[in-house]
Amino acid sequence: MSEVSVTKNAKGPERAGDQLVVLDNVNKHFGALHVLQDIDLTINRGEVVVVIGPSGSGKSTLCRTINRLETIDSGSITIDGKPLPQEGRELARLRADVGMVFQSFNLFAHKTVLENVMLGQTKVRGTDKAKAAEKARALLDRVGVGTQADKYPAQLSGGQQQRVAIARALAMDPKVMLFDEPTSALDPEMINEVLDTMQQLAQDGMTMVVVTHEMGFARSAANRVVFMADGRIIEEAEPNQFFTNPRSDRAKDFLSKILHH
Ligand SMILES: Nc1ncnc2c1ncn2[C@@H]1O[C@H](COP(=O)(O)OP(=O)(O)O)[C@@H](O)[C@H]1O
Ligand SMILES: [Mg+2]
Description:
Layout: E1 19-30, E2 33-44, E3 48-52, H1 59-66, E4 74-79, E5 82-83, H2 88-97, E6 98-101, H3 113-123, H4 129-142, H5 158-170, E7 176-180, H6 188-203, E8 207-211, H7 215-221, E9 224-229, E10 232-237, H8 239-244, H9 249-259
Parallel strand pairs: 3-8, 3-9, 6-7, 7-8
Antiparallel strand pairs: 1-2, 1-4, 4-5, 9-10
Helix pairs in contact: 3-4, 3-5, 4-5, 5-6
């Protein structure tokens, strides 16, 4: 470990220029739909990037290309300097390096909470069971659901399940975490417990890409806001600047719709 690896996210990547995820001129189509258009996006280590934009603008597709749940037509994506692998064991390792948390929690229903957090560790990382269980318990404690370890997902609230999903991704020691609308399926009273967990993660220095409509989170946790519309990145700015003084008409229009009601 280098001496700078203990990063604190003080609303600014402390290792500026240390590029972790780089999308270079990425294009993708779904049939006739040009869903990602000339996307250039660099995420530095320790940075928290919030992606916002209207429904259908390509935010989920963007996330899914970063861990290769979707292929791209042209351009390149590198993680930590390496191009995304095509298949096989390398791809499984990439998926472990890029933690993903979805709107639907996607936990294994027939496995306990503890087993859900152990599974990737034993199967992909080759960790032995005792170590995996120990780490799983520590992570479940960290996200505040340690007492739920032996229950099944259906016995937990949505907010608790989503925190388990976060713990499960963290168990792989990911280099970056992608969150695709992690609170959109939650009852209102559970949103903050998940956002607090994410905020903590950001403070601990995790590199994060977060698609969310939670503008409070964007304001307090993001280093940068990326605004997408129609498959393009329309503008990128530091949150305060973006929310107080958006440059593009598309962003102004979008913000007026989500902020004034
Ligand atoms: N697997 C797919 N096949 C065809 N079209 C898709 C697929 N996934 C997404 N799309 C379309 O791509 C566009 C962008 O979708 P998405 O990335 O989910 O946007 P967002 O997350 O911003 O709402 C939408 O028009 C959507 O209908
Ligand atoms: Mg989406």
